[in-house]
């Protein structure tokens, strides 16, 4: 074309392609760039482009070709103008999805056929072979010393290619390029294409029998492109591989400078910890490394914490004087010589605890995500809140002032009451004849008064739950009569026939209609369990266990026989189990090893309207399985009326409705927005109680604290009105309330009284309460939201959706005509609420989900059949975190380490930590730590014995951190033979330890199933800390000079050590934490001290050493604040500008 603008844009494209070639290949050739662009124009698609490049001999990686394709499609002037050529029409995306796939190729990697992983079956034999091969260099070096003869050459290349190059190993290779500074060699015997550099100083002729061939003026003198050579891996730094030809006999392939790789594996961390997927994960060299490490008696291995301490200046001076006087020898003090002759580089590589290392985030993107993270920011994210500046969202962010005032008032009253009871505590300690009971701490006295107040049950609780209270519905019906009284019993025959006639069926029915407990029994009685199990998923673990126990009781068997359940870390089934209840996450894990779910004849997804992440993933997986298995039956149950979406998704399947009685509901809105929704709710309840006809009231609130506060305030206000007002029975409902107390809400109110139920969103669909005629809806819910920028989950109060508002209003029309009081304006309902709630998969962290999908061979996340696709930014963040954990390789495919991480039912960082402990020889201890992390706080602190509890707890403290403290607690409990009195004496919750013991047993079973060794490191806690660091490096933090700690990640905010931490009084410079708990501050939970250089060693994809010559980004952000001067009139008096001004004033006064 003659258009000058076209030529300019084309030259810009050529320049960009040439720059990419120089960055990747070291070749800056514009003619070659134009040739590549012409090949792209001839090709109609990315595979055709790849094939044309391969035909002309361009051995480009797939990631590099995709990068070139994206650049040409984006920058080529013809592509921009959208000409009508046939080839371009093939490449131009026809749909938004294809356009998105071109912009984000990292989310559209081609799927792989699922294969059962075979590396677990042959793992023990492979370990033996690798153990023998690792010991062979040591035997060969001993034989060389005795006989002086050359040893036979190693067998190269190995039968099984290495996932990553192994340090100090000899490989065959082919010279792929010759430069002035050396030669690039492509390694054989390594999975994929891996190139390394042989520096000119390490080159030799490819026919040399020895390593020394004299000085080489240019690499082309000894090697040329295409030559076959033998090289040894001498260094691995991230993706850069250093090779040597001088160390290898080029004729026989014998290593001229043999080094035992077993010992090197311990001295240098395993390569999967340096960002690559090294073989020790599977055990290739791990056995030898651990065997050598277990017998190592060096001082470095035996030190539990810090490295060797540097000599102080006086110590150095004294030693030098002793050496000068002849009393001591210089050879007796090698550390002195090392310090005198050390350089900054050598100190950086040494094991120095006092070294000042600056760490910063490695901003280099994953190769398969290059340029896509920034592109995802331009996409419109999923809106969790429709109108951020609306009245509803402002009220949610402001919170309820009534609850804050009540909380502060209660705290003030407790403090005043404790101060009244304070007295002189010194008498009991000074009197030698005083009894032990008289020797008390003042802190304990204050705590005792507070605990007495806390133990004093609130008046409203005494009134609602007393000795005369009966819990639950009392029935005299037999089990058979109870089953026949359920609404679903009348529809048994048509329901079973509908399941027979259809492969997929959606069942809609109210809570309490009998869907969960009866459908599985009907199917088992009709013979559906003869050719496979009947599986039923539940979104919550408590529901899975309780429903299974109820169905087992109705069937008349022991739990675990014909009827069983499976939840995380607990499997209560047997070969005789026909009906199996489980969490949706457990069925998703079963799809890892059985994508077609061949063990089941019928699968029932219960409570599908809750749309958990696992349920949404199961939708897509089971939709595929239904196409492959025509005999599989799928039932989807929902308690909401918007089941058309499920029907449309599952091939327009029929909907079976269990009819329920519904009555008209009058909707009432407020005229103006309510500033405090809690206060408005309580006022509305009192107005209904005093002015409306009989009928119970249901109030929707966000959480336990709000509900308890509301119950207390409402009781006080009703009591203030006097006895002439009709009785109002106040009943709370939330998940933490004991089940017998929750069942009180189902009892009818006595004559002349009214019942008000204050509930969370559990009462929307999971619970149906008879007798409710009035619903009070403030319009808010507390839900978990994931911030992809910060990488954190948090519970936030947000406005509900229009569908949730309609569902809440429907609760008033179950018994008769009712009213719904919406404490927001009609305009807010129409303009500030989303039509439907945001599914969990669109607002939560997806790292674990994507890891499971990758393990099933599903790499194309954009084209996976999600019912509601998650936002691209959340998926990219999850892929970045998995890449940093080495679960994904440079092309975005699952590594061996990633596949093993998917086998563990835990978050990816914890799975990585556990697998890393196998190769570091501390998996015995790590199993206990992981089990302790999976339970709530193991310590308890009675308020009347706070000082004693703190003293007992301090005995378990370890200087390395809280993870080691938990390990010490568990080991001490094991040493006490699992004694419960020991737990009481040490203020430890015995039930929590029992739960940790059960979890540990389950983890040991998983380790045995997948052939992971369980080894102990003894007193060498450094290995444990390194293993923790390898999984939770993203949670690293450095001490902030101003206050607390600052996280090292890009989102770096301030976090703080909790006063209960073992490191609170000895805060180290660098720590990693398990999670952040948001209370009065952002406190770190379970903190362990680390060395900063470990972060670079275990996660070079995420961290790097800061450039010593330049100031790091973190230091540039730090502000230097002078010490506080209490004598100064102004804290800015130290500034030069202030001093100059004062000098001028004095000078003027002197002359005047």
From TrEMBL:
Annotated ranges, domain S1 motif: 168-246
EC number: 3.6.4.13
GO MF terms, alphabetically ordered: ATP binding; hydrolase activity; RNA binding; RNA helicase activity
Organism: Malassezia globosa (strain ATCC MYA-4612 / CBS 7966)
Skewed-composition ranges (Basic and acidic residues): 87-99, 121-148, 403-424
CDD domains: DEXHc_DHX8 (cd17971), GH2-like_DHX8 (cd21691), S1_DHX8_helicase (cd05684), SF2_C_RHA (cd18791)
Protein name: RNA helicase
The keyword Nucleus appears for this protein: yes
Domain Helicase ATP-binding residue range list: 496-659
Sorted UniProt keywords: ATP-binding, Helicase, Hydrolase, mRNA processing, mRNA splicing, Nucleotide-binding, Nucleus
Superkingdom to which the source organism belongs: Eukaryota
Enzyme class name: hydrolase
Any one of the GO BP annotations: spliceosomal complex disassembly
């Amino acid at each position: 074309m003659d258009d000058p603008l076209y030529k300019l844009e084309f030259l810009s494209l050529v320049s960009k392609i040439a720059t990419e070639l120089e960055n990747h290949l070291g070749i800056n050739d514009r003619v070659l760039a134009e040739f590549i662009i012409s090949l792209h124009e001839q090709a109609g698609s990315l595979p055709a482009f790849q094939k044309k490049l391969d035909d002309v001999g361009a051995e480009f990686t797939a990631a590099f070709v995709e990068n070139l394709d994206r650049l040409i499609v984006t920058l080529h002037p013809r592509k921009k103008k959208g000409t009508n050529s046939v080839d371009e029409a093939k490449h131009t995306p026809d749909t938004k999805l294809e356009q998105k796939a071109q912009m984000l190729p990292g989310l559209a990697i081609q799927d792989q056929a699922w294969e059962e992983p075979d590396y677990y079956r042959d793992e023990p034999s492979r370990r033996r072979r690798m153990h023998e091969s690792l010991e062979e260099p040591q035997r060969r070096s001993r034989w060389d010393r005795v006989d002086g003869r050359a040893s036979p050459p190693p067998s190269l290349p190995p039968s099984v290619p290495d996932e990553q190059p192994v340090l100090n190993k000899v490989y065959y290779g082919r010279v792929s390029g010759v430069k002035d500074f050396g030669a690039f060699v492509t390694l054989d015997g390594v999975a994929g294409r891996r190139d390394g550099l042989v520096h000119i100083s390490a080159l030799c002729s490819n026919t040399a029998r020895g390593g020394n061939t004299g000085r080489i003026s240019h690499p082309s003198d000894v090697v040329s492109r295409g030559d076959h050579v033998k090289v040894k891996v001498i260094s691995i730094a991230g993706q850069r591989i250093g090779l040597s030809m001088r160390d290898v006999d080029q004729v026989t392939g014998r290593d001229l400078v043999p080094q035992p790789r077993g010992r090197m594996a311990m001295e240098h961390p395993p390569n999967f910890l340096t960002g690559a997927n090294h073989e020790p994960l599977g055990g290739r060299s791990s056995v030898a490394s651990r065997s050598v490490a277990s017998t190592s008696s060096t001082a470095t291995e035996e030190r539990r914490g810090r490295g060797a301490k540097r000599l102080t200046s006086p110590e150095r001076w004294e030693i030098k004087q002793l050496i000068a006087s002849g009393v001591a020898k210089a050879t007796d003090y090698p550390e002195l010589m090392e310090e005198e002759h050390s350089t900054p580089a050598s100190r950086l590589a040494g094991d120095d605890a006092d070294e000042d290392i600056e760490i910063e985030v490695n901003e280099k993107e994953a190769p398969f995500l290059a340029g896509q993270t920034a592109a995802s920011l331009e996409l419109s994210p999923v809106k969790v809140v429709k109108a951020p500046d609306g009245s509803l969202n402002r009220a949610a962010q402001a919170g309820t002032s009534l609850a804050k005032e009540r909380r502060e008032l209660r705290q003030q009253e407790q403090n005043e009451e404790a101060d009244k009871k304070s007295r002189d505590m010194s008498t009991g300690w000074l009197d030698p004849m005083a009894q032990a009971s008289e020797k008390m701490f003042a802190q304990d006295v204050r705590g005792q008064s507070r605990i007495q107040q806390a133990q004093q049950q609130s008046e409203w609780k005494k009134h609602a739950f007393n000795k005369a209270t009966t819990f639950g519905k009392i029935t005299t019906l037999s089990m058979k009569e109870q089953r026949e009284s359920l609404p679903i019993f009348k529809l048994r025959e048509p329901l079973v026939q509908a399941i027979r006639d259809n492969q997929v069926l959606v069942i809609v029915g109210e809570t309490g209609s009998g869907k969960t407990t009866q459908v599985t029994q009907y199917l088992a009685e009709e013979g559906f369990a003869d050719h496979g199990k009947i599986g039923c998923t539940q979104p919550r673990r408590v529901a899975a266990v309780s429903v299974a126990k109820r169905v087992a009781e109705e069937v008349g068997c022991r739990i675990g026989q014909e009827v069983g359940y499976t939840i995380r870390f607990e499997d209560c089934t047997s070969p005789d189990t026909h009906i199996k209840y489980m969490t949706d996450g457990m069925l998703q894990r079963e799809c890892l090893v059985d994508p077609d779910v061949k063990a089941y004849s019928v699968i029932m997804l219960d409570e599908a309207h809750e749309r958990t992440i696992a349920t949404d993933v199961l939708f897509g997986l089971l939709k595929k399985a239904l196409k492959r298995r025509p005999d599989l039956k799928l039932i989807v149950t929902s308690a909401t009326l918007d089941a058309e979406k499920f029907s449309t998704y599952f091939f327009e399947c029929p909907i079976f409705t269990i009819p329920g009685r519904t009555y008209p509901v009058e909707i009432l809105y407020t005229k103006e927005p309510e500033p405090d929704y809690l206060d408005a709710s309580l006022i509305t309840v009192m107005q209904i109680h005093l002015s409306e006809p009989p009928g119970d009231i249901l109030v929707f609130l966000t959480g336990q604290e709000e509900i308890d506060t509301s119950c207390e305030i409402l009781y006080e206000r009703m009591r203030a009105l006097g006895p002439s007002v009709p009785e109002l029975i106040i009943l709370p409902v939330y998940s933490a309330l004991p089940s017998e107390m929750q069942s009180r809400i189902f009892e009818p109110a006595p004559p002349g009284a009214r019942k008000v139920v204050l509930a969370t969103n559990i009462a929307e669909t999971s619970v149906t309460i008879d007798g409710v005629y009035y619903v009070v809806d403030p319009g808010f819910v507390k839900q978990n939201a994931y911030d992809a920028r910060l990488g954190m989950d948090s519970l936030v109060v947000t406005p509900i959706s229009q569908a949730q508002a309609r569902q809440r209003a429907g609760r008033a029309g179950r018994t008769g005509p009712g009213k719904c009081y919406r404490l927001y304006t009609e305009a807010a309902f129409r303009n500030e609420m989303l039509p439907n709630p945001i599914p969990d998969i669109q607002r939560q962290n997806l790292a674990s989900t994507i890891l499971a999908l990758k393990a099933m061979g599903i790499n194309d996340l954009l084209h996976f059949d999600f019912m509601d696709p998650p936002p691209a930014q959340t998926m990219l963040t999850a892929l970045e975190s998995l890449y940093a954990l080495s679960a994904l390789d440079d092309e975005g495919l699952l590594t061996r380490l990633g596949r093993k991480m998917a086998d563990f039912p835990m978050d990816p960082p914890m799975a990585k930590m556990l697998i890393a402990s196998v190769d570091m020889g501390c998996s015995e201890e790590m199993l206990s730590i992981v089990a302790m992390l999976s339970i709530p706080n193991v310590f308890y602190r009675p308020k009347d014995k706070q000082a004693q509890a703190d003293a007992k707890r301090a005995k378990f403290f370890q200087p390395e951190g809280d993870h080691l403290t938990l390990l010490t607690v568990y080991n001490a409990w094991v040493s006490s033979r699992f004694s419960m009195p020991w737990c009481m004496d040490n203020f430890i919750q015995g039930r929590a330890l029992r739960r940790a013991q059960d979890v540990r047993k389950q983890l040991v079973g998983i380790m045995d199933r997948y052939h992971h060794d369980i080894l102990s490191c003894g007193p060498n806690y450094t290995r444990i800390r390194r293993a923790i660091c390898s999984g939770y490096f993203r949670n690293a933090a450095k001490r902030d000079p101003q206050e607390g700690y600052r996280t090292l990640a890009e989102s770096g905010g301030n976090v703080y050590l909790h006063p209960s931490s073992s490191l609170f009084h000895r805060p180290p410079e660098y720590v990693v934490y398990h999670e952040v708990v948001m209370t009065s501050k952002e406190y770190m939970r379970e903190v362990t001290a680390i060395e900063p250089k470990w972060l670079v060693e275990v996660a070079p994809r995420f961290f790097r050493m800061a450039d010593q010559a330049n100031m790091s980004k973190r230091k540039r952000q730090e502000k230097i604040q002078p010490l506080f001067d209490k004598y100064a009139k102004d804290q800015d008096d130290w500034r030069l500008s202030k001093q100059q001004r004062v000098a001028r004033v004095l000078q003027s006064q002197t002359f005047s």
